[in-house]
Amino acid sequence: MSEHLTNGSEPIIRVDHLLIASMVAPGTRVLDVGSGEGSLLALLEERKRVDGRGIELRQEGVNRSVAKGLSVIQGDADKDLVDYPDDAFDYAILSQTLQATHKPRDVLKHLLRIGHRVIVSLPNFAHWKLRSQLLLTGRMPETSHLPYKWYDTPNIHFCTLKDFRELCDELGATIGQSYTLNSYGYKLPYVVPYFLQNLIGEQAVFLLKR
Amino acid sequence: MSHSDAPDEGRGAQSGKSRPVSAPYDSLSVTFREDQPLHLDSGETIAPYTIAYQSYGDLNEDKSNAILICHALTGDQHVANDHPLTGKSGWWDVMVGPGKPVDTDRYFVICSNVIGGCLGSTGPSSPNPVTFKPYGLDFPVITIADMVRAQASLIDYLKIDTLFCVMGGSIGGMQVLEWATSYPNRVKTAIPIATAARHSSQNIGFNEVGRQAIMADPNWHEGRYYDHDESPSKGLAVARMAAHITYLSEEAMQEKFGRNLQDRDKVTFGFDADFQIESYLRYQGFKFVERFDANAYLYITRAVDYFDLAADHAAGGTLADVFKGTKTRFCVVSFTSDWLYPSSEARTIVKALNAVAAKVSFVDITSDKGHDAFLLDEPDFFDAIQGFLSSAAKQAGLEPARTTGEAS
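^ inputs. structure came back:
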């Protein structure tokens, strides 16, 4: 699912993937939920020697991943996480997928149960470009980062960075580490206050603990 | 090399055997003698017993590149060579061979005829050591686990400790699951294809239809047709026809045959094979009886009916309990149009493996070819198998395909 958000199909490593990789300790067990065509898993296996698994909804993505030698299954984050036992993985990763799930809250709850740590990357719907498009044109925003028409977007549950922090609070998860990226893919400095991150951050990566 | 308690090995059709059906047909074979009986789930034993097998490629020095292929109900050991009876190419010729997904330049591939079968391994058509006549129904009822136990004795005989991979489709897939459960430390990777962890009620029902067709044939003679000139070929053909329908999807059947008439412009108002599908099924039945023993069909279908991995290995528990602690890497494969072992059966296996955090890949291949898709040229399927095997081979430190060596 993560590939939905890429611009074209250039083989460069996505910056959010690099950030996620920087949060993962080497040699750990990792579950990537919404693993797409396996690019993040492949990166983690190559650079961090993780014992990685993936779940991906789209068959094409699954087939490509398995053909790459990745342990990926065809499955649905909304339905299939229930089958995983508690603490099965060191990290459960949800990369650019939360907004495409039917029940994001339940998905996050399951991830916090399955993974010792949870890493979530997500687009920020409160980014100024989106806010201004909605305000000025009165239409659903479309950006290069979120290029879909409202009626065919796979992203059905958008949230803002502020919303996500609140949900983490509600679920009793603490944010151990977080990076917010601007539209050029650069990390915002830590000193930027949250309200400003929520305005100029296009996406963010969070490391959560129970 | 040959000392008294070693199994006998052989190659080629053994002359002097009473019936061609029990001869090993140009296969390698190993016979385990009376002092090495095969202990069956039923409590009975078979001794002596013979396992006929084929192998392709070379076993490497540390014996780490062996792949065991488990064949389906009516398959046999002739995976990738011309069949000695039908002259047709091997049943998995598309999958197994030099440069193919199961690359015989890289792996040592073994396939043995199941115990209870009729192509060289001991089965109901083999001579009963007590009466010197074919066993018939005196052959003990066997299970999938018994088939696997017999395969394990072959693997022991070949002095292979750990199999790099055990793979197979349909009831071959059941044997794969059984291997991974009974001998978890001897199976590095497992590829169960188009299969289930237990036989469903519907599937038992289909098998029963086949068995009843055989047993209703007056030539069956309570399984003692070996003493007569005729065998229950009509019953066996009907069994094959009924089963063959379950191997195809409705879509593929409709597309291939529709309501097309066979060599005629209009229906004959009789019971000839008016429709192409009738003619096709009759032909399938007719061809089948040339190469298959009716009693073997009874025994193997029974073994499949009895298969229930969770009940056999985790009484009172779940399927997940069966796989607890497994180190085997799995690649589960199903096909979208397979209604004999539908994708939901594969999902059940995958769920159980997930529940114990096993290393598992799962592909549900889009195909309209029904259950038989696993025998056919399905590029996505091949890519998945090839990718899975090569990455596992890399992890296991297996050499990439050799550059030297004789053609197999």
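Residues 2-209 of chain A form a domain with the Rossmann fold fold (CATH 3.40.50.150). Chain A has one domain: 2-209.
thumbs up if we can close this ticket
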